[in-house]
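Entry 14. Ran structure prediction on the chain below.
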Amino acid sequence: MNHCTFAVYPGSFDPITNGHLDLLTRGLKLFDRIIIAVAVNPAKIPLFTIEERLELIRESLKDFPLKERVDVDAFDGLLMDYVKKVGAKAILRGLRAVSDFEYEFQMALMNRRLNSDVETFFLMTGMRWIYISSRIIKEVAMAGGCVKGLVPDPVERKLIEKLARR
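Output, C-alpha cells:
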C-alpha cells in the first residue's frame, strides 16, 4: 500500500531549540509530512506568546532543507482532538532521559485510550542535544548565559530582545 503518512509533533516550543529541529529532521525520514503543533497549555506561563512561538518556528524553518514537508499550527484542548481534526494517525515525541519516558509513556497510554487508531512514535534525542530543553535554554538566557548554537538564530535574537526588556 502506498499512502502519504504524516505525524503531529506537539509541544510548547517555548522556544524551539536545535534539539527540536534535529528530531524534526529525523522524523521526516519516517513520515512524508509533519505538523509542528504548538500547544496552548494554561498550566504553564510561557515566555513567548503563541503568536511569537509560531513566528519563531516559521523563521527557524526558512533555511530548513525539508521545509515544504513541514506545517506549523497551534491548538488548545486535547491533543487527540487536534490529531483527529487534521486526520493524522501518528504523534512524534522526543525522549532525552528516563525521566522523560515516564511522563511520555503515561501520555501515550492515555492518548491510545482516547483514540486507539493513533500511534505515538518516540525518537531518542540526538546526543548533541540530549542536555537541552526549552526550560534550560530560558534559564540560561535569563541568567545572561550564551545559547548560541543551541537554538536557531531567530530564537537567539528574540530571546536577547525579550529579556533585555525585563
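The two ends are 55 Å apart (CA to CA). Will compare against last week's run tomorrow.
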